[in-house]
Amino acid sequence: MMEIQKAAELCFPQLLNSSCRKPTLHWSKAVLLNIVLSCISLITAALNLLVIISVSHFRKLHTPSNILLLSLAVSDFLVGLLLMPLEIFRNTACWVLGDVMCSVYWYLTSNITCASIGNIVLISVDRYVAICDPLHYPTRITLAKVKLSVCLCWFFSIFYWSLYLKDILVEPGRYNSCYGECVLIINDIAGIVDLALSFIVPVTVIIVLYMRVFVVAVSQARAMRSHVTSVTLQCSLNQANKSELKAARTLGVLVVVFLACYCPFYCYSLVDKNVVNDSSASFVVLVFYFNSCLNPLIYALFYPWFRKAIRCVITLLIFKHDSSEVNII
């Protein structure tokens, strides 16, 4: 009787000595959690798909800043489409997809999140140049340079994590202690390197650039209110106009929300180096992923062009002849 009960608690009852135990979450809580998180996953994928379609379709939106938003939306879309469902499945059920899919999951997770971080850094650089050096912005931040930067960002992410995760790519499931498990073990040295490259360096760059942007934006706003007539300042104000300042504020909100969702995960990793395998810490992982759902909501709240583009997509106006030439801005 005890053996039958023990077998019922295992992921693979036929493998008594090597099977993992099933998650202990009550079935009603598991169902509710799956429904809520699945809805968030679908909303995340749908909203970011709207961003991708909008920026890709309308020519007026093919600006350097929007190309960066497009790249960020691609990574956010993949989070909603792939990472959220797999993370939900990994924490609420036995992993039955095999060792190869486990390695693919960790590889995709690492690549997509790394690309998101890179995109946020590029957005910070774009706003820094636009606000702090507006006269040289058109020559320094061109469409070609931004596209190249985005490609390099994704390439670096793929290259870096291919080296970092080469062990599980060569030998899938090497860190799994039993069947029905999907874990990733990171040694101390690799963890320190990842903490520096994936958290400390990019976050420091983002904060420093946006502090500079904030200081310049405040000084320009004061100058506008006091009607300063200095030729140099007026020239600067003409270039860094209200739309640029508004874009900086909007993307500033995006960056702040990103850091608010991103920092808890790495702060927790300082306490628990294997945070990705700790089921009790799955909340901070999902909070990090939830940022991908918030980004398009920020666009909808602050960008009129995004709301117009959504209406065009939903009403199928994008299929009309020359709809891509419509002045959506």
UniProtKB/TrEMBL annotation:
Report the main location listed first in the record.
membrane
* Cellular-component GO terms for this entry: plasma membrane
Show the stretches that span the lipid bilayer.
31-55, 67-84, 104-125, 146-164, 195-218, 251-271, 283-302
Q: Can you say where in the cell this protein is located?
A: Cell membrane
| The entry's keywords | Cell membrane, G-protein coupled receptor, Membrane, Receptor, Transducer, Transmembrane, Transmembrane helix
Topology within the bilayer: Multi-pass membrane protein
Q: Does the keyword Phosphoprotein apply?
A: no
Q: Kindly give the SUPFAM superfamilies that the UniProt entry links to this protein.
A: Family A G protein-coupled receptor-like
Start and end residues of each G-protein coupled receptors family 1 profile domain: 47-299
Taxonomically, the superkingdom here is Eukaryota
Any one Gene Ontology molecular-function term assigned to this protein's record = trace-amine receptor activity
Q: Does the keyword Transmembrane helix apply?
A: yes
Under PANTHER family, the record lists: HISTAMINE RECEPTOR-RELATED G-PROTEIN COUPLED RECEPTOR, TRACE AMINE ASSOCIATED RECEPTOR 19P-RELATED
Family per similarity comment:
Belongs to the G-protein coupled receptor 1 family.
* Identification of the protein by name: G-protein coupled receptors family 1 profile domain-containing protein
Q: From which source organism is this entry?
A: Astatotilapia calliptera (Eastern happy)
Query: What lineage, starting at the top, does this entry show?
Result: Eukaryota, Metazoa, Chordata, Craniata, Vertebrata
